[in-house]
Amino acid sequence: MSESVTTPATILVVEDDGHFRETLSDAMALKRLKVRGVSSGKEAVDALELETPALILMDVQLPDTHGFDLCRRLKRSPRLKNVPIIFLSARYTEPADRAEGLLAGADAYLSKPVNLDVLWEEVNYLLEKSS
């Protein structure tokens, strides 16, 4: 598998934990991806009005909305419906939670703590698949 995608893609990281958001952002930036980080569902919606990312990494438990609800909302948007979404969660890790996240429209669902190599494989796969 290639170490980085051929054209710089923008990733939106929606994560309320500032340290974890920075870690994810740094990990993706090392793979030559442009990263925009936000800490809430509202900030995500605002950012998505300005730019359509190639992929969204989203925490399930956000301070102002549930990630599943935000995912459903984004997937109803004609402009955003094809943007891959990867859920990340420390709390919602049961098989039923994963199934609900995928039914909400997510393309992948990873448990925290996230193995960065596994995350990169998912990101790279989804970026190649959607290009």
Q: How would you briefly describe this protein structure?
A:
By secondary structure, the chain is α/β, with parallel strands linked by helices.
Helix and strand element order: EHEHEHEHEH
Number of helices: 5
Q: How is the quaternary structure best described?
A: single chain
Which outline best applies? globular
Helix content: 40-55%
Give the name of the CATH superfamily.
Answer: Response regulator
Instruction: Return the CATH architecture.
Output: 3-Layer(aba) Sandwich
Radius of gyration: 13 Å
For the largest beta-sheet, the strand count, sense and barrel status come to:
5 strands, parallel
Structure summary, number of beta strands: 5
The strands making up the biggest β-sheet line up spatially as 2-1-3-4-5
Classify the fold: give the CATH topology: Rossmann fold
The average pLDDT score comes to 92
Task: Walk me through the structure.
The protein has 131 residues and is an alpha/beta fold. It has a single domain, classed as 3-Layer(aba) Sandwich (Rossmann fold), CATH 3.40.50. It is built from five helices and five strands, in the order βαβαβαβαβα. Strands 2-1-3-4-5 form a five-stranded parallel beta sheet, sandwiched between helices. The radius of gyration is 13 Å and the shape is globular. The N terminus is likely disordered.
